[in-house]
Design brief:
Elements (H helix, E strand, L loop, with lengths): L1 E6 L4 E10 L2 E11 L1 H5 L6 H23 L8 E7 L3 H18 L3 E5 H12 L7 E6 L4 E8 L2 E8 L4 H11 L7 H12 L20 E2 L2 H16 L6 H27 L3 E5 L6 H13 L3 E3 L10 H13 L15
Parallel strand pairs: 1-4, 4-5, 6-10, 8-9, 10-11
Antiparallel strand pairs: 1-2, 2-3, 6-7, 7-8
Helix pairs in contact: 2-3, 4-10, 5-7, 5-8, 6-8, 8-9
Bound molecules: 5'-O-[(R)-(carboxyoxy)(hydroxy)phosphoryl]adenosine and zinc ion.
């Protein structure tokens, strides 16, 4: 059985063919057309431009995904599409394209939550993974802990009260002069910075909210770092990007490491997934692995290629919804909200 996944919630147009072979999900193709070079000119995603770029790309990307999987539309058994959350103008492109394709070809349609799809990328990395498990999704829009009761039931048990970790990486990277999105460059610079000691003299507030709830606030960190960087610039000094990258990364990663044990205790899970674009961060991966090892929790992290937005993860969650009998019809609408 093959599911065609379609993703257009933000700045990546993606289509993928994923096959279920005896309960194991196999990625046959995963084509991602990134709009990053376009949005980079503006320092962030411009929703109107994103919507238009999805319209231009969605059909080509879908047929490329079928071609590179070596299949035709007639080999597809269902279509899964991201319907929420995300940029509404961007989501509508994928949803309407998927609805038309499903209707015209008499195929079942499955609506997928983008944040759940990030978690489902873990099924593509580990065929042993079974719910219930704990999931931490860290992306440009989310930093949330979920108790995944079963493959289609996600209960949010904590997370950020304001900005997401990815947003903090991107905004702070931007004032440090890095192109959008800054996450990967911050990761590399932090590795250099940790080899020196001067980052420790940059004092930043912890995003871990006081108490034993698995909750964060990244806006305080963002404001504090912005003030430090801007006052250095006003004094005519050049902020040390390497030291800042290390200090910011340390603040974010150590807050996650501090709160993770509370999430593990709250769910009692012995399995955990780390997912989302920021799960590509080498320092975060290492810190979460260390906490999991200490608590006897088995960790699954998708490969970096499946951490950022892609349609294979949408198809993976699509399989879960399909198996649970959760189908959509031509009335399916997109929604910006969770
Ligand atoms: O999941 P994603 O592709 O899109 C959303 O659903 O938001 O996540 C994008 C985020 C961006 O903020 C980007 O800077 C961040 O993931 N990111 C990273 C790394 N690679 C991507 N953040 C930190 N370290 C990385 N290596
Ligand atoms: Zn995403």
């Amino acid at each position: 059985m093959i599911i065609l996944g379609i993703e257009s919630s933000c700045d990546e147009t993606s289509a993928a063919a994923v096959e279920d072979v005896g309960g194991k999900m196999l990625v046959r193709s995963n084509v991602v057309a990134s709009q990053v070079p376009t949005h980079r000119l503006y320092g962030g995603v411009v929703p109107e431009i994103a919507g238009r770029a999805h319209i231009e790309a969605v059909s080509r990307v879908t047929y490329e995904a079928l071609d590179s999987a070596g299949i035709a539309l007639s080999d597809v058994d269902a279509i899964a599409v991201t319907s929420h959350p995300g940029l509404i103008g961007a989501l509508l492109v994928g949803v309407n394209f998927a609805k038309s394709l499903a209707y015209a070809n008499g195929l079942p349609l499955v609506a997928v939550n983008h944040v759940h799809a990030h978690t489902a990328a873990a099924y593509l990395a580990s065929w042993q993974l079974r719910a219930p498990f704990l999931s931490l999704v860290v992306s440009g829009g989310h930093t949330s802990f979920y108790f995944v009761k079963n493959p289609t039931e996600y209960v949010e048990i904590g997370g950020t009260r304001d900005d997401a970790a990815g947003e903090a990486f991107d905004k702070l990277g931007r004032v440090l002069g890095m192109p959008y999105p800054a996450g990967a460059e911050m990761d590399k610079l932090a590795t250099e910075g940790f080899m020196r000691n001067d980052w420790k003299s940059i004092s930043l507030p912890s995003p871990a909210i006081h108490g034993d709830e698995p909750t964060f606030s990244f806006s305080g960190l963002k404001t504090a770092a912005l003030n430090l960087i801007n006052s250095e610039k006003q004094r005519g000094e050049e902020p040390d990007r390497t030291a800042y990258a290390a200090a910011i990364t340390h603040a974010i990663v150590s807050a996650v490491a501090k709160k993770l044990p509370y999430a593990i205790a709250a769910t009692g899970c012995r399995d955990m997934v780390l997912a989302g674009g920021v799960a590509a961060n080498s320092h975060l991966r290492r810190a979460v692995a260390e906490v999991c090892e200490k608590h006897g929790v088995r960790l699954t992290v998708p490969p970096v290629s499946l951490c950022g937005d892609n349609a294979a993860m949408v198809a993976a969650q699509g399989f879960c919804e399909y198996r649970a009998g959760n189908f959509a019809d031509t009335h399916l609408n997109a929604s910006a909200l969770d």
